[in-house]
Amino acid sequence: MTEYDVVVVGAGPGGSMAAKTLAENGVKVLMVEKRQEIGSPVRCAEGVSKVELESLVEVKKSWIAAEVSGAKIYSPDNSVIVLSEEQAGNEVGYVLERKIFDRWLAKQAAKAGSEVMVKTSAIGIDKKREHLVIKLRRMGEVFEVSAKMVIGADGVESRVGKWMGLDTTLKLNEVESCVQYLITNLKYEMDYCHFWLGHSRSPGGYIWLFPKGNSSGNFGIGVMPSMAKEPAKVYLDRFLNEVGIDTSHVVEVVAGAVPVSPMEKASTERCLLVGDAARHADPITGGGIINAMKGGIIAGKVAAEAVKNNDFSSKFLSKYDRLWKEDFGKTLERNKILQKKLLKMDDKTMDKLIKSLSDSNLKEMSITGIVKELIKKNPKLLWDLKSLFF
Amino acid sequence: MQSKRLIINRFKCAYCGACISVCKNNANELVETFLRIDENKCNCCGLCVKVCPMNALSIEEV
Ligand SMILES: Cc1cc2nc3c(=O)[nH]c(=O)nc-3n(C[C@H](O)[C@H](O)[C@H](O)COP(=O)(O)OP(=O)(O)OC[C@H]3O[C@@H](n4cnc5c(N)ncnc54)[C@H](O)[C@@H]3O)c2cc1C
Ligand code: SF4
Ligand code: SF4
Fold this sequence. Notes:
The complex is a heterodimer. Chain A is an alpha/beta fold. Chain A contains 10 helices and 18 strands. Chain A folds into 3 domains: 2-41 and 99-170 and 261-340, FAD/NAD(P)-binding domain, CATH 3.50.50; 47-95 and 172-259, D-Amino Acid Oxidase, Chain A, domain 2 (2-Layer Sandwich); 356-389, no CATH class. In chain A, 49% of the residues are buried. Chain B is of the alpha+beta class. The radius of gyration of chain B is 11 Å and the shape is globular. Residues 8, 13-19, 30, 35, 52, 54, 56-57 of chain B line the site of one iron/sulfur cluster.
């Protein structure tokens, strides 16, 4: 049985950053990915903040599909807030080509010295006194490796947490059910990201269009299954039909789910969870790439320390929880509260709020920027959010 | 005796994994593009049916 210090399960942005960080710290690490092609099929709208991404990796042209110069947010009655160039860039900015991006990140991990195995699923973990026995299935062959600890970066489908005693099963009000078409020959304003709000057209979620260059774009929807009466696809098709989008040039269908309810603990004895497996996606935007990468780096560092000190206790590893909370955890918590408020808000109130901003000059294109402005204009309606944002 | 069954429409399934995320019983697994159900573990609770964006799942009486 091959022995590793750490096994990372899943080669998304979270897993690759964790494996890279571990390898850079001299840790013997194996990253397993169940798919035969890293990054494919895509389950993402591929929008990321420029500032955040540039703080984490050196940006390569090969995986940037488009840059956006602003965003438009539409209320249920189609009043619009426009966020222009100099204000954009916080929540969105780059639209990635994730098939290439995810693979590039995995290669960085491999270059740093991590072993990588594709078409290899983790199918179970045996907890021994001094180590873990991780059961893998590679092209039909079942075998075992031993590791001192595991990092579960296995995305929304995560089972690693559950095997290790962290219940990560999502409830129907803790997840967005999503579908998206990559449409080409799209006649739309393509240097902007577009967001359509309203529970009647996308219950508990929103509709988006992210440009991908060459008049193509990701047109997608997320709905919360506890609120939606029909499957996500029905709502998206209805919307595209209503606004008259030509769907005769769809070159890719994407489906997926995003966790939108953070959890308290993403660590336990001999185990850390990162990215969607740890529910680190944002409850408002559903964006999870940046947090997966950040969490991956933090988890990699903490796990490397654990290896060095030979301490894999839940007490030692809880350092990870402290660090991710200090970094992006606070925003997740805050946006969860904001999300609860939005989920209860009817479409008429949302119209009113969006209209109140139609003549505002917004200084930053971020949730914080928009909500601050909304609170200023609608203090009575949003009094309960004030302490969170000011 | 089971009187219900979870049915997958493989022509609709986009192998997205949404159904995996909500299953308390770990009764399903996505093997690349193939959704596997362990009928010994599945209690036909229907949660995965609700989360499926593609309308590929249904519970049927047998
Ligand atoms: C429709 C949609 C649109 C989105 N749009 C955006 C967006 O615009 N911006 C943004 O920031 N985020 C977006 N997200 C969220 C984003 O895709 C995720 O947050 C991000 O991919 C999380 O990264 P990760 O590394 O945690 O997991 P993933 O990227 O999901 O990677 C997990 C990997 O683990 C593998 N795996 C799972 N189980 C096993 C196993 N047992 N053994 C081996 N391998 C396993 C999977 O095959 C997968 O490759 C979107 C999500 C969806 C569904
Ligand atoms: S949620 Fe639906 S589309 Fe996605 S894998 Fe499951 S059955 Fe297939
Ligand atoms: S019906 Fe319930 S138990 Fe069966 S696979 Fe779906 S979620 Fe799991």
